[in-house]
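tool_log.txt
---
The assistant was asked to compare two proteins side by side. It first ran the structure predictor on the initial sequence, then on the second. Raw inputs and outputs are pasted verbatim so the downstream comparison step can read them without reformatting.
(1)
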Amino acid sequence: MSNVARACCAALALAMVVSSPVEAKPLKHAKMPRVPASAARATPLPPELARALAASKVPAAHVSVIVAKVDNPLQTRGRIGPPLLAVNANVPRNPASTMKLVTTIAALDTLGPDYRWRTQAFTDGTSDGRTLNGNLYFKGSGDPKLVPEEMEKFVAELHHAGVTNINGDIVLDRSAYSADIGDTGAIDGGDDRPYNVAPDPLLYSFKAVSFSFTGNPNGTVEVGVLPPLANLQVANNLSSTGSGHCGDWLARIHPTLNAMADGSYVAHFSGTYPASCEDKGWNVAAPDRDQFFLGGFRALWQASGGQFNGNVRTGVVPPGAHLLVTHRGQTLAEVVHDMNKFSNNVMARQLFLTLGLAADNNRTPASLTRSRDVLNRWLDKNDLAMPGLVVENGSGLSRIERISATELASLLQHGINSPTAQVLIESMPTVGVDGTMRNRLMNRDVAGNAHIKTGTLDDVGAVAGYVGSRSGNIYVVVSLVNDPRASQARGFNDALISWVYENAP
């Protein structure tokens, strides 16, 4: 067990002791005055980190850093103590995907790690125990991980409810979200990029298709597809070549995915695929969310022996329709694990909307405004002063989101001293081991001893999380770089993580 994991378990045990012996609850303390952001006093970088920053060519004025020891919550009221390092720590900056930590910690506190999303099936028709004569309505609540494995369970539940043949249409009820959700468009104009997929109450398999390629000795290329889609045709005109480097392989296979007038998809590939390319894949956001949901459902429905030849449309569950199935998705703990390990933006956006939707018991459509209100009330309740916080969608895929290093460090201090600390830490990439940190610091002693969420946008490079030092103590570490050369500061951020492990007392 790493030092960070040991500290997490200790914090969790402490919370259990001072709260209910039956159900762990957040520690309760008397109200304290809000601590201003200026509480983080500036300290200089040690020479080796100053050299690493200088090598990146990023001016120190464009970097915010804070390193602070994780303290006993009974002594600090959940706030960070005097920092070991603090550089521009109170300046609000774009955090990129480290903003997911704000959404994660608030969701774990307010919803609980066992929270599950519900996706329901209704009908306005009748069934003879085998054939449903009427429409099948799907009503979603924004499950971030309604993936094929979950849809297979949903299909089995429908069969168990006595439905094998559907003599009607599929109607998709998305009324759980306000109609303007997703109207802001892609952050970079790349509507076909999976990270730009808009939130959807019936988000199936992230509304993205993953194509994989395998060259054969006979010169042909096999194309694999996930998820299976009944309405997808693959036009494979690829040939495999045994010579040449992998290089820009994607440009050489000319990939396209188009939606046709009849509702089908056609994926087309042509050119040569080098046999030297291994484990390569093309991920693309699918056009037309209705047809994507239908194609995924129909593929699994037919594979299970079911029959359905109807159409799909958007609508609402009509009055008088009766409930057939309520599918309960994966737990929040499982969702944040995948969301943070692999920095999944659409999952984070769905989770952020859930803050507002769940607070109202799903009675009114989710909106960004309501989720921001819920987040602000949660911050107030926990005396987490964040005057620099600006939240757009809770994922970090934003040009306007802001938080200071001090504020993010305070949130991490709160998170590690909460009853859900274990879930939080296990959701974060482990340095040199997995997630977005799997290829960083692999050969350094800090590998396996730090749990760090990364954040990357054009002009933004960030890390935030926990480092277990060689001395056995745990430190909160945050670095936010906002500069056109932010990508060059990756070495500085890695050096910072390693320095804390090696040198923090």
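(2)
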Amino acid sequence: MQRKGEGIAVKKILIVEDQALARMYLCTCVEKCIDCEVAGTLTRADAALSRCGEGHIDLILMDICTESDSDGLTAAESVKKFYPRIKIVMVTSMLEGRFLDRARKIGADSFWYKEPSSEVILDLIDRTMNGEHIYPDSTPYRKIGEALST
């Protein structure tokens, strides 16, 4: 059985997520990937740029809204400016269409609306690392009682 990192390049992934349960879930997903490892976790997006300067990061899973109103999109824009080789996947559970447009504009590589499927996020990480830009076609709708989100 092959162990993590044996004979393959390991992708270092930084997780920026302020909600503890979501952060643990993302860590668990990344640890399932044989060629990925969690390089660290942050609860504030505005700390990401500094962390990228401290050591090798291949990809960031960046929540859009983090602790103390720290804006993940602004942080991603700064990271892309100084470290353009770092891939960034914007992550949110907020069904807000303007986030999609802004993420594209700042150069985020991919975009993921949080869902409980580790296969989806692992596929997204792999495809993003291979140079694809994965974005949903539109903001998803969720049924809330008898109403749909807009």
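---
observation on (2): The helical segments are 20-32, 48-54, 72-82, 97-106, 118-129. The mean pLDDT is 86.
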